[in-house]
Structure formats: structure tokens, C-alpha cells
Design goal:
The protein has about 260 residues and is an all-alpha fold. About 75% of the residues lie in helices and about 0% in strands.
């Protein structure tokens, strides 16, 4: 594989890791009543924009997320690591492609916040109203089912080991620690995806509530009780682990299979 592709992948890993580190840290501070707030990707980008050299960081992060999206698309189309053409490999490549689409959207979001005026960011969803209640309900139920399946696939994939095998960490220094860090992070992500799936299914069933929910809303949902706050703290630490895992991949991931 060309060195340039590996460099693009590494830049992408760092950028994805930063997003989840910020989300996790802000949400953990909120869970501990230390001044943070439940956070999602958009809120993490807004937070970075407000820091010293924030616009520069946002520009670099947007470019980095473009690199990650490119790496996802490149893996799904060219199969540079020779995963094969069996059913399992095709499903994985389809998953990589959809992941590329997700992070393309987040990259666009980063550029949007870069050029948008600083102020109250509204997440209006009135554009959904033109679709009609029946169409919205069907759409939200489909999204909810897909997200629920994704959560299950994440849990099963991590439990069986396949989810982490794709990073080729075997034989590397500290590989056991990094795998455990990744496992915790992936489980936390699956937990939050499951909550978001619940939001969409609930919105699809009860047609009067069509607010699009995301990671921030999932953390806010957990923040409603003492037990939920504890789960929120654990999940936030999981997101920090998930972010750290991707940053560590820049050093320990192998791009060649034995």
C-alpha cells in the first residue's frame, strides 16, 4: 500500500479520536457537575471553535475528518488490505462505506461551524414537516431499526473479537491494553447508539415528537437520575477510551496482514 494512503489514514484516526475525546471529556465533566455539558459531535466542534486558535483547529479537524472519510471509502472500494470477497468481507466493506458517509457529514459540519457566526446554534428540524407525519414516522422507524441493528452488531463484533481484529494490532507492543481500551470504547458507543435508536423508534411511533436526537440527547437522557448519571459518567469514560484508542492506532496499527 502506498505510504500516502497510510498517512491519510493516520491523520483520519487522530481527527476521529479528537472528536470522541472532546465529547467524552465534556460529558464526563457534566456527569461530575464540574462545568461540562452533555455533548455530541456538533457541540464538540463548537467547543473547539471557542478555544485559542479554535478556527485553525476546526479547519485542520475538518480536513482530518475528510481524510478519515477518504480512508473509509478507499477501504470499501479498493480493499487495500485484501479482506476478500466473501459475504462477511462485503458486509464489512459496506459498513466502511456508510461510515465514510457519516464522517463526511461531520467534516461538512466542521466547515459549517468554521464559517458560521458564533452565537446560538439552533438545530431546527422544521424541514421535516414537509414530509408529512406518516412519511416521517416510517422514516424514523426505519432509522431506529437500523441503529438498533448497528448497536447489536457492534456488541457482537467486539465480543467475538472481529471488530478489533480489523486493526491488525496482534504482536504489537501494548496490544492487549489497546484492545481492552478499544473494547470499552466500542461497548460505550454501542450503548449510546442503542439509546439513539430508542429515540428514533419512539419518535416514529409517537408522531407528535419528531426532534432528531443524537449523542448529546443520549447523554442528557442518562442525566435524569442518579443511576443515569453514573451510567453517563461510565459511558463518557468509554468515549474517552474510544477516542484514545483511535489516537493510539496512529502508532500501533499495522496496515499489512501477516
Amino acid at each position: 500500500m502506498k505510504k500516502s494512503y497510510k498517512t491519510i489514514a493516520v491523520i483520519g484516526f487522530v481527527s476521529k479520536g479528537i472528536i470522541y475525546l472532546v465529547i467524552g471529556i465534556l460529558s464526563l465533566l457534566a456527569a461530575l457537575n464540574m462545568g461540562g455539558q452533555s455533548s455530541g459531535a456538533s457541540q464538540a466542534l463548537i467547543f473547539l471553535k471557542k478555544q485559542f486558535l479554535g478556527r485553525t483547529m476546526l479547519l485542520l479537524l475538518g480536513l482530518g475528518l475528510c481524510c478519515y472519510s477518504f480512508w473509509m471509502f478507499f477501504q470499501s472500494i479498493k480493499d487495500p488490505e485484501n479482506d476478500g470477497t466473501d459475504r462477511k468481507a462485503k458486509m464489512r466493506r459496506f459498513g466502511l462505506f456508510t461510515t465514510g458517509l457519516v464522517y463526511t457529514f461531520i467534516a461538512i459540519l466542521a466547515f459549517y461551524h468554521l464559517f458560521a457566526y458564533t452565537g446560538t446554534e439552533e438545530s431546527g428540524t422544521t424541514y421535516l414537516d414537509m414530509l408529512g407525519p406518516t412519511t416521517i414516522s416510517i422514516l424514523f422507524n426505519i432509522i431506529g431499526v437500523v441503529l438498533a441493528i448497528q448497536a447489536v452488531v457492534l456488541v457482537v463484533g467486539v465480543f467475538k473479537g472481529g471488530m478489533l481484529d480489523q486493526f491488525n494490532l496482534e504482536g504489537k507492543k501494548y496490544s492487549n491494553f489497546i484492545r481492552k481500551l478499544g473494547m470499552f470504547g466500542f461497548y460505550a458507543r454501542a450503548f449510546v447508539v442503542g439509546i439513539i435508536a430508542y429515540f428514533f423508534l419512539r419518535a416514529g411511533i409517537y408522531t407528535g415528537n419528531h426532534d432528531v436526537k443524537g449523542i448529546q440527547d443520549a447523554f442528557a437522557f442518562l442525566d435524569q437520575s442518579t443511576v443515569g448519571r453514573i451510567l453517563m459518567a461510565i459511558t463518557a469514560i468509554g468515549f474517552i477510551s474510544y477516542g484514545a484508542f483511535y489516537v493510539l492506532l496512529t502508532r500501533y496499527r499495522s496496515f499489512e496482514k501477516d
